[in-house]
Amino acid sequence: MIHHNSHMVHLMALGAAVFYGAADFTGGLAARSVNAVLVVLASQGTGLLLLALLMPFLPESLPAPADLWWGAAAGTAGGAGVALLYRALAIGAMAVVAPTTAVCAVAIPVVVAVAMGERPGLQAASGIALGIVSILLVSQQPPSDPQAAPAQAPARRRGLGTAFASGVTIGLFFLALAQTRTEAGMWPLLVSRATTVSVFALIALATKQSLQMTTGVRLLCASGGAMDMIANALYLVAVRVGPLSVVVTLASLYPASTVLLARMVVGERLGFVQMGGVVCALVSVVLIVSGT
């Protein structure tokens, strides 16, 4: 039974990675045409609406106040993480920002899990380490990218602190959700998303954002928000059953799915290093899955 359970956990965590990656891809496309704050507001708002509509049909759950507080903390950290990430992408080179953020986001929960007594076996630990390497490789921009020009060395460093802060806050988002109890059902996620949407609504008001969007961009935001919500739900269920270090690593392999989608949908060509990263991600999955 345990073994069967662990396979389910692995599948859910990997499902989360696929949906996170797809949500990032659609969000990134939308952010090319409208302000990032608006993209976050529209996509997270869609996710919130979707979950609110589904709540009556989900199994009955009894959240304790602590579960809701953890949800609010996750929403605050997640919202800050996304805002910082977009800021870092705007001022720094994507090739530096994306891997820095993703690696911090996975390293923090893993370090905390080990500090709290989780001991992944050698094989799973190797898989986790390789997973972190794969995130670094997959997120590198191919050298033909003008963003990777050597003249941008100061800009690369400029985005670094913001990217690091973004990774830390996203790591805290993963950690906060992991503290909620199974009995709380999806309530912590609802509170988390409501918190993020409120924060971004305030930012949009304060910066007097125009809320104009084309139908195409609206659809991108809506689908991104729905996929992000599915990813969060899968992560939440998986992390309550499985070990945090393993679940968070598998769920954090999402840059691989973003890169593959960019390849298939927009025809972005993959650099040699990125291909290596995708291969590392696959090997890391095999190691983690067979080692736990």
State the main characteristics.
292 residues, mainly alpha, 78% helix, 0% strand
Oligomeric organization of the protein chains:
single chain
Radius of gyration from the alpha-carbon trace, in angstroms: 18 Å
Roughly what is the average pLDDT, rounded to an integer? 86
Q: What is the rounded distance between the termini?
A: 14 Å
> Largest sheet, described in full?
none
User: Which geometry do the CA atoms define?
Assistant: globular
Number of E strands = 0
Helix/strand order:
HHHHHHHHHHH
Number of domains: 1
Strand proportion, as a percent range, falls in under 5%
Estimated structural class: mainly alpha
Number of helices: 11
Helix content bin: over 70%
> Are there runs of 5+ residues with pLDDT below 50, and where?
none
Question: Could you characterize the architecture of this molecule?
Answer:
There is one protein chain. By secondary structure, the chain is mostly helical. The chain has one domain. It contains eleven helices and no strands. It has helices at 2-30, 36-54, 65-91, 94-115, 122-138, 153-178, 187-206, 215-241, 244-251, 254-266, 272-291. Helix 1 (2-30) packs parallel to helix 9 (244-251) and helix 8 (215-241) packs antiparallel against helix 9 (244-251). The mean pLDDT is 86.
